[in-house]
Amino acid sequence: MRLDVSYTGYNSYDDMIAAMNDGMIDVAFPVGGGLFFSEESSIYQSNPVASLSADLIYSEDHVHNTLQTFAVNRNNRIQYYYIRAHYPDAMIFYCSSVDECLTAVAEGKVPYTTANGLRAAKILKNRKFRKLSMKPLNWPENHSFGVSVGNERLLKILNRGVNAIGKDRLEAMINRHIGKLYSRSLYDMIMDHLWIIGLLIAAAALLAVAFFARESSHAKRRMEEREQASRALEKSRPHP
To answer: Using CA atoms, how far apart are residues 230 and 219, in angstroms rounded to an integer?
Structure first.
């Protein structure tokens, strides 16, 4: 039996879940948040496809413990569920993207945000986030397939597939995918090697100065030689 699979991308978690509940798609990925939040969204979750470590992101310059406020990507409901589950009293500061969450922490607007462990180290290599620190949290962030309530048959098929592929192979696939998501910008590479560029510019400047000094010296010597030759020629001429 051949199974044709097509993929549809969504800008937000909520849009994806709404599309599944409206019958536009059969399976959503990734979904998370555990049983309570899946029931709230009227979905079933498969066995975890990935159980990712999670990191707390903070700035030493702005962090404080008197009030727990987290920057949360409004399009990433899994992050929201994670913070609600483990920091139930925290205040939420909504942002439009991961980058905006990290910028809010870097600028001191909020003390914390979170990122899964596979992404955090790569994201923080970005020069503008290098003042941020991270520490691993004790609770993993599970990512699963989601199906609409009542679609138990499809859920069983997905669970068999997840179990058959195995944890190690799934993690290897995820690592390959994550590695392609983030790359260092040209600006970061230039700034990281600015001292080398400075040395090259200084060396080029010294070579240019040396070249022009040498040419000036040669020109002066040639002028002196011409003057000497002219004087010698003048002396050698018979006088009337």
So the answer is: 16
Q: Which amino acid is at 229?
A: A
| Residue indicated by tokens 């899964």 | 116
182 and 207 in a common domain = no
Q: What is the pLDDT of residue 140?
A: 87
- Answer yes or no: are the C-beta atoms of 146 and 45 closer than 8 Å: yes
The yes-or-no verdict on residue 147 having pLDDT over 90 is: yes
pTM of the complete model: 0.69
Same domain assignment for residues 216 and 105 = no
How far the first Cα of the chain sits from its last, in Å, is 120
The pLDDT value recorded for residue 105 is: 93
Sort strands 28-31 and 69-73 into parallel, antiparallel or unpaired: unpaired
Residue 127: DSSP 8-state: G
How much of the chain exceeds pLDDT 70, in percent? Answer: 75
CATH number at residue 152: 3.40.190.10
SS3 call for 197: helix
pLDDT the model gives residue 45:
92
| 74 Cβ neighbours under 8 A, 6+ residues apart | 12, 94, 95, 96
CA–CA dist 41, 35 (Å, integer): 10
Residues 74, 150, single domain; the answer is yes
Q: CA torsion sign, 58 to 63 to 65 to 70?
A: negative
